[in-house]
Structure formats: structure tokens, C-alpha cells
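TerB family tellurite resistance protein (Streptomyces siamensis), 231 aa
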Amino acid sequence: MLPGWGRNGRAVQVPRILGTRTAWTTVGDGEFFCPGCGGDRNYQRLTGRRRFTLLGVPVVPRGETGPVVECAACRHHYGADVLDHPTTTRFSAMLRDAVHTVALAVLAAGGTCARTSLETAATTVRSAGFDDCTEDQLGALVEALAADTGRVLGGPCGASLAIELHEALDPLAPHLAPTGREAILLQGARIALADGPYTPAERDALATVGAALTICADDVTRLLAAARTPS
């Protein structure tokens, strides 16, 4: 509607002669992280057909539009790429699994699984969300990992372990701020340092962690050095 003026000087609404209207069709639904609401919400995935309107009546097709994602709460529309961002629940699970995988990799690289390293690793993993994780469970998993892969404990980070690290960290890294990525690396570094200085195998494993988290080699070196300095 367009504004106009009546004889009494008051604004009146004049019908819009030409316009466009979109008819939306739902093609899917689910849960996503809504950037407008700032949390997990239900959504509908929509495609639309546009038409020219004459005096508000659809008359001529103008083609398709979308797809778009409509938040069920705020009703805002977003591009389909918004679904690439994990939900809060999914993100927490990804972070928990990543920390667990890093802890196992560093313990396997350390070789001896000293009690101090196991305690540090278990505390780290529990803080990430595995509330019932124990030192004995981690020790058993490290031994099982070595038996399954034929890897010698304390040896360099092998191909199978590197693949596991990348599988856990690659999907997570794009959704973490630089400080978040550095925090995961530093957690691994503290596990390695719990029983003494880094071994070459531990440095190799931590370098693989840094690469999977897209931290450049110079920053990995800096962070590993910083972890040795008591705070």
C-alpha cells in the first residue's frame, strides 16, 4: 500500500498496483543454531515461487526463490548455509570427543602412561563432558589402541592415530575461535608435561593436533613453550 492524502489532509492508503508475492513450500525441517535467537531452535526449510501481483492478486509467475531456512521461533529467514553451523548440543559433543581423542593420542605418545599423566588427562576429559572418565579407563583405552593398530607406545604419531585426530578435530576447528583452538592444544601439552619434558613422540603428536586445528607451526611451537612455563 502506498500513502496518499485525502481531502481532509489525512493520510490514506492507496492500493499498490504492481508488486510481487512469494508462496513458500516446506521441503524439510529439523533443529539448527539460530543466529538471531542465539540458541538451538526448530526450523523449516522452504522453497518459494514468486509471482507478479496486480492490485494484490497473483497473476504472472516470476520464477523460483530459495531455498531458505525459517526459524520456528523468530520467523527470520536465513541462507541454507546456516545449517553448516552445529547446534549447541552437537558442538558440545564434538568438543568433548575432540578433547578425549587428543588425550588418548598424547598418552599413547608418552608411552609409559605415568599416573600423573593419567590423572591430568582424566581431569581434562571430565571437564570436557565425560563425567565418569577415570584414569584406569584411559589407560585401558590407550593399551587397546596400541593393540588394535599395532603401534608401539611412545613411538611417533602413526597414520591411523593421525587420521583419528583429523577426524575429530577437522570438523570442529572452523567453529572455534583461535583461543578455543589453542586451548585444546594446551590441554594436550599439559598432559604431556605432567610426567616430565616433552618426548619427541609427544611433540610429534601435538604437532599433528595443531595442524588439525589449523594452528600454524610457529604458533604451535610458541604454545608448547608457553605450556612449560608455570602460570
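Residues 118 and 135 are 5 Å apart (CA to CA). The chain has a mean pLDDT of 84. ok done for today
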